[in-house]
Amino acid sequence: MSFRSRRFTFGSKTTAEIDAITTSTNPELTAGMSVWNSDIKKPEYWTGAVWTNEDCVLLTNTSGSTILRARLVRVDVTQTTVQGVRLTDVNEDIMIGVVHRGAANNGTMVIAIQGLYPVKYFATETTSTRGNLIQLSSTAGEADQITTVGTTDVIGVCAESLSAAQMIASGNLVKCFIQTMSSN
Question: Is the full-model pTM beyond 0.90?
Answer without folding.
Answer: no
